[in-house]
Design goal:
The protein has 310 residues and is an alpha+beta fold. It has 6 helices and 17 strands. The chain has a single domain, classed as Roll (2,3-Dihydroxybiphenyl 1,2-Dioxygenase, domain 1), CATH 3.10.180.10.
Length: 310
């Protein structure tokens, strides 16, 4: 009889522990860490990110063959060598800062998402791991170093990466990961034509940076459309740096003779009512300077969350 009581008590303890694990809270997702892109011309790419954008060139603790171009202590563009068979693709992964990399790994694993067995630790003290979203885009979660060092980037065009964009085929399928599992919150959606949605933005749950679905025709998981050009794909897979005034940032670039390469003719106001100006790296990845706040009323939908700030 006593042994049965002990067994029942043990099973109850196991059940309570299992419930506690299942109900483990999600670590904070505070904002963007970085965008990782490929380069076919490292020297030209260095000139673009270092001299035109003004980011600081740093070693890459994640990949000895890579380079980081930092705009702040916790945000950067990671540039990697172009792998064989990449075709027109120049995006490796998006990355988000979290309060605990191991906590996020366990959180996803307990909810049935495929994760690596452990996180990776960098020489700078950062920790990270990578998973695939529903359309097989690589997504990295990064726990920054305890005391991140501000880069020497006095001429950087902006110090806050406010959003990342990726090509998406199926909004509902991607939402099962970003919204249902990770708790990203709606921010804005719109399109070039009335009645058609081309862009869907959702903010991180514990900050104001956002991910932008760049909607593309074709079934989910179909990959890069055969008719898509490298430039068109670079328009979709992009990053954005926030500005108090894009027209003023444009004047700084212009006065400093920093407008070489491919870029818009001049700043313009987008469908979301914010000033923007697009530049492109040597492999076609778009960098969008964007005002933190709208100048005009946005089309299509109102903003449903607070804007990011400098």
């Amino acid at each position: 009889m006593f042994s049965r009581i002990l067994a029942a008590a043990f099973l109850a303890t196991v059940a309570v522990a299992a419930t506690a694990q299942t109900e483990m809270s999600r670590p904070k997702i505070t904002g963007i860490s970085h965008l990782a892109v490929y380069t076919s011309n490292p020297a030209a790419t260095e000139h673009y990110y270092k001299d035109i954008i003004g980011a600081a060139k740093l070693p890459d603790p994640e990949n000895p063959e890579g380079v980081r171009y930092a705009v702040s202590a916790t945000q950067f563009i990671e540039v990697l060598p172009l792998p064989p068979g990449a075709g027109i693709n120049r995006l490796d992964h998006t990355a988000w800062n979290v309060s605990s990399a191991e906590g996020m790994r366990k959180y996803l694993w307990m909810r049935g998402w495929k994760t690596p067995a452990m996180v990776t630790r960098g020489a700078d003290g950062s920790k990270w791991f990578t998973v695939l979203d529903p359309e097989n885009n690589k997504v990295e979660f990064v726990q920054p170093p305890l005391h991140p060092k501000a880069p020497d980037a006095t001429n950087v065009v902006g110090t806050h990466i406010i959003h990342l964009g990726i090509m998406v085929h199926d909004r509902a399928k991607e939402d099962t990961f970003y919204r249902a599992l990770l708790d990203f919150k709606p921010y804005w959606f719109g399109g070039m034509q009335d009645g058609k949605i081309d862009w869907v933005s959702q903010q991180v749950p514990d900050g104001h940076d956002w991910l932008e679905y760049m909607m593309t025709s074709g079934p989910s998981g179909s990959g890069i459309p055969a008719t898509m050009t490298q430039h068109a794909l670079g328009v979709l897979d992009h990053l954005s740096i926030g500005e108090v005034s894009v027209p003023e940032a444009y004047k700084v670039l212009q006065a400093g003779n920093r407008l070489g390469g491919v870029h818009d003719k001049e700043p313009k106001i987008g469908k979301d009512g914010k000033y923007q100006f697009n530049l492109y790296d040597p492999d076609g990845i778009r960098l969008e300077l964007m005002n933190f706040h709208a100048t005009e009323k946005p089309c299509c939908s109102p903003f449903t969350a607070e804007d990011p700030a400098e």
